[in-house]
Amino acid sequence: TIPLRLFRKTGLKIPSRLEVRGEVYLAKDEFKRINTEREEEGLATFANPRNAAAGSLRQIDPKNTASRRLNIFIYGAVASGELDIASHYEMLNYLVDAGLKINPNIRKAASLKEIKRYLESWEEKRKDLPYETDGVVIKVNDFGYQRKLGQTSRNPRWAIAYKFPPEEEVTRILDIKVSVGRTGALTPVAVLRPVTVAGSTISNATLHNEDEIRRKDVKVGDWVAVHKAGDVIPEIVKVIKERRDGSQQEFTM
DNA sequence: TTGTTTCACGCCATATAGTG
DNA sequence: CACTATATGGCGTGAAACAA
């Protein structure tokens, strides 16, 4: 869905150089289609759209990638100076005119209150979207303010992600093992009764260190709530203490 | 040649050490 | 205090490396 030729519209200013950035996704119905096909062909089915999309991009033969029918939303661009665009919103509209796809649900908000209302409006609606989403990005619109705010080493100070509450499941800690890292660091890892959360089988989760175990009051044999932080990293959210029956064992490194 | 294992990658949380 | 830089952890995936 990235056109081979941009700027078919006449009268549009064309920069000498344009770099666009976006997020590739695999729509829910395409994910289903691929898995149905793979089933018919006796191939293993994919676990979730996110990882299927990632795998599709890693194909050596672009024909394979194309057959997966990935899609993309462009969310930003860097153009050589001559463009005369002063805000993010303007830029996105320009990119649409240039022939690129952007997310149709962008909105300008004038206050935090408005932002909050918008976020709440998607809590339920997001299930009706043709793709899976885990949140909304809130950005400062004016490029001048963006420049003033600047960025840290990894994150801009003018944008932040709001994440919807992630899917949560309950399982049991079967054991706590200590893993030895490359540098010799010892890290306790919870071995869980495998549980499916948002399309992944979670069977391990790091407990980081002894302090963290004490903070969360985790014991071997505990029932715990788990989720995938950032939709990816398995994390023990909390211990369900009401379900303790005395068989739980304190862990020491 | 075939099957298995390892690796890199993207994603984020948490921690430590160090800088200014 | 606000960072930067780095390390570590887990999952799913395809490719590469390895073993049989």
Automatic annotation (TrEMBL):
Residues 2-253 form the NAD-dependent DNA ligase N-terminal domain. Its EC number is 6.5.1.2. One of its GO terms (molecular function) is DNA ligase (NAD+) activity. Pfam families: DNA_ligase_aden, OB_DNA_ligase. SUPFAM superfamilies: DNA ligase/mRNA capping enzyme, catalytic domain, Nucleic acid-binding proteins. It catalyses: NAD(+) + (deoxyribonucleotide)n-3'-hydroxyl + 5'-phospho-(deoxyribonucleotide)m = (deoxyribonucleotide)n+m + AMP + beta-nicotinamide D-nucleotide. GO terms for biological process: DNA repair; DNA replication. Its cofactor is Mg(2+). This is DNA ligase (NAD(+)). The lineage of its organism: unclassified sequences, metagenomes, ecological metagenomes.
